[in-house]
Design brief:
This protein is α/β, with parallel strands linked by helices. It has helices spanning 28-44, 57-70, 85-92, 110-127, 138-154, 168-179, 186-192, 217-222; strands at residues 7-12, 48-53, 75-76, 161-166, 198-204, 207-215. It is globular and about 50 Å long.
Length: 229
């Protein structure tokens, strides 16, 4: 059991359809990962009182098996949505590469994509409030994620657990904020976020505290693939 303090478990979505025409759909691997994390959480036995998901399909699809396991209808909150990856790439890089491939010449490997995305994200973060191309700014992104976490924490009773199905960038932004690290540190957390990795936050008198990051033992136990995109 998880103890008396309220707990938030952040679950990154399962593997999406990188390189397909619609990145936002879970891949077959992602579907299996979502089932594995649901079974793991149900066996672990936290007193889940609330399940929250971002509005993206990959987030909602990952939440569905856990919602069925706990008999708890997910609440959709768009503040847990990921930053707009392809929009940031289009604005802060010259590459035609996108997570969703719709035109010839866009295809690339996941590692190459991550390298390009890191560069674009670095420029996006450095731009601060002066975000270009209609992109949500880094400060606005970070603030809405922190607001969502704070609001959720405030509504949890003693010993309660909330599951949040979200994305790697959201989790990375929260880790950076909670550890009071420079904003650019977000890239390091984001780069290693594993699909359906679990990050644990506890909510006490001093606010929200990061306890663990990116736990993915459930994938190893279930013999599921460990993926990063």
């Amino acid at each position: 059991m998880l103890g008396a303090v309220p707990t938030i478990l952040l679950v990154r979505h399962g593997q999406a359809s990188f390189g397909a025409s619609d990145y936002d759909e879970l891949s077959p691997v992602g579907v299996r990962q979502a089932q594995a994390v649901a079974e793991h959480l149900a066996a672990r036995g936290p007193a889940v009182t609330r399940i929250v998901s971002g509005g993206l399909r990959r987030q909602r699809g990952t939440a569905a098996p856990a919602a069925a396991a706990f008999g708890c209808e997910p609440v959709v909150d768009a503040r847990w949505d990921e930053y707009a990856m392809d929009q940031i790439l289009a604005t802060y890089s010259r590459t035609p590469v996108r997570a969703s491939v719709t035109e010839p010449g866009q295809a690339t490997t996941s590692a190459e994509y991550q390298h390009l995305l890191d560069q674009a994200l670095g420029a996006w973060i450095a731009a601060g409030e002066d975000s270009a191309g209609g992109c949500e700014s880094w400060p606005a992104f970070s603030a809405r994620v922190h607001e969502a976490a704070g609001e959720l924490a405030a509504g949890l009773g003693r010993g309660a657990t909330a599951l949040v199905f979200t994305s790697g960038g959201v989790i990375a932004a929260l880790c950076v904020a909670l550890l009071e690290l420079p904003a650019a540190s977000m890239l390091s957390f984001n780069r290693v976020a594993i699909n359906t990795g679990i990050t644990k936050l506890i909510c006490g008198r001093r606010g929200i505290t990061l306890v663990s990051f990116n736990d993915h033992g459930h994938l190893e136990l279930a013999g599921q693939a460990i993926t990063y995109r």
